[in-house]
Write a structure and sequence with these properties.
single chain; 28 helices; two-stranded antiparallel sheet; mainly alpha; 2 strands
Amino acid sequence: MEVHAHLIRLGLSQDSSFRNHLINLYAKSRFFGHARKLVDESPEPDLVAWSALVSGYAQNGLGREAISDFREMFGLVVKCNEFTFPSVLKACSSCKDLRLEMQVHAVISGHSQMAEDIEAVSLFPEMHREGIGFNETTLSTVLKSTASLQAAKVCEQVHSLSVKTGFQSDRYVINSLLDTYGKCGQVENAVRIFEECKSEDLVAFTSMITAYAQYEQGEEALKLYVQMLQRGNEPDSFVCSSLLNACANLSAYEQGKQIHVHILKFGFLSDAFAGNSLVNMYSKCGSIDDAGRAFSEVPERGIVSWSAMIGGLAQHGHGKEAINMFNQMLRDGICPDHITLVSVLCACNHAGLATEARIYFESMKELFGVVPREEHYACMIDLLGRAGKIKEAMELVNIMPFQANASVWGSLLGAARIHKNVELGERAADMLFVLEPEKSGAHVLLANIYAAAGMWDKVAKMRRLMKHNQVKKEPGMSWIEVQDKVHTFICKT
């Protein structure tokens, strides 16, 4: 109280920071009347003030008072944080009030639905430590937020807790675990759960197929889809979209067409996800005509549709057509994102449009609000290198706001091979030896540069270095489709 009086004499009693310290001091000293009076006298009491009051009540065993003030704070739309919830949970635990515990569950769910995933995941262990019970809905909600954060370790912990508490056989928890492990890149864990639970429902199959497709196991995704149909499950648009992405990554054109037939059969053609995935699949498989037809049938073409079509044209050497489509997209009022602009720069690269590429690159922030990323710099450096503008390419490497990665140095090494530039080749290769020591590409390309320059002693030295470092030439691979099956061939010689 003497401190309070001193602050009043100094004219600091209305300062929010000093006031909050006083509220905290009064609450911890059990002078709750004084603490509450300061909160009431504040023009707009903030989170710190309310948290100090709630914490004071909870620490002194006054759980119901803590909950009452928490409700009042919540009603005033003061956003809580990780420091507020432990006090609330402690209060709930001391009150032994089931309704209050259910409200805490609702708060976790609310955070998850509002995309406040860190808050939801942080609150759950606090709740568990305070002895507040949970159910399958709480676990599923926490797993949903865990999936959004791609927090694999948290998923493992929740999985372990579900086993200890007997929820591992609950269908909702199983499906949530499958989805979360898949999104966290833990495909093996997802497979193990899927096989152990012998689930038959569409949600489980969708989670597994999506995980396979996302992490470059497209063949497994297609095999699982056959099993799903055999067990009497009809696909939805999400399954079809995942399968099309798997086909796109495999360049499995015929199988992609079969999924297209299923999209028509089950009436998903008007679905934006399925339509965009069709455009992407046909584009990546090199069937630009089919991609164009799928693109024309997408009901509401957004940035994803346009980017897939522009990217497909650019990838398969139709640079000028890609630029024309980009201009049409702008005329239709669609603003590009960073992915679209990577495709545009690649299109310029394929078409040899160095001047146009530079204009797009230098104006993307001003015109479209997109700050150039590493992939944009890599495209420009590759383009300049191919065009023989080595000095300009190196200037860009030196001024870009991040360290050049393997993609950038790989582009420069490729440019050195094209233009027989030994000095650049040696510099780029030296960087790649550090960044990707296990890969053989840099050794092989540098040896080819030496060979083209007639420097046979250095060719021999490079081969000895590869042998000494046990670097093996990566095998060549190719894929063909025969009777609707993708066959992989590997050349190890």
